[in-house]
Amino acid sequence: MAVDRERVAGLVRELLEAIGEDPDRPGLKATPGRVADAYGEFFAGIGQDASAPLAHTISIAHGPAPETSPSGAVMLRDIQFRSVCEHHLLPFRGRAHIAYLPGDQVVGLGALPKVVDILASRPQVQERLGEQIADAIADAIDTRGVLVVLDAAHGCVTMRGERQHEASTVTIAARGALADPAARAELIALIGAGRE
User: Fold this and answer.
1) Any idea which fold 5-41 has?
2) Please, what CATH class does the domain formed by 51-192 belong to?
3) pTM of the complete model
4) Could you tell me which of 44, 62, 63, 134 has the fewest CB atoms within 10 Å of its CB?
5) Has 21 been annotated as catalytic?
């Protein structure tokens, strides 16, 4: 379902009036349409199948190098994402780090950011977002384990209330063999490697 931009624009106009502003003044006249366009982007993931980017897999055992067998993890670090907190409708943004232990299948690395983008493009909470990413990967491809670490700054923390400008939130979601903290310790260390 696509965002109803016309309806959003009308509601933003009402909101501007409700906070005591004049939606017809020059600086605000185009704001309802701009917000409607932004919401079209922010919430484009609603109704999309997050596992669709994972549909094309590559068999390790029967692929271009059949003597290759899965051993270690595949990790993609620093996937930038943005989302909107469902509690205050304020943005949060950060980086996702995804690792999985392949079974017989791997996916193209470009598929992982697409999964993140689809799931982040909905009203979200960070804790659920990480779990949904882990589930999408674990359910769609043959893995022995999945690890998703999200590190994000939330507008509801940095811009309101106590205004902790430098605060970020880190969440971990793990499946399979990587649900064991000892098994994922090396991967957690690799996420931070080379950052000093």
Assistant:
1) GTP Cyclohydrolase I; Chain A, domain 1 (1.10.286)
2) alpha beta
3) 0.90
4) 62
5) no
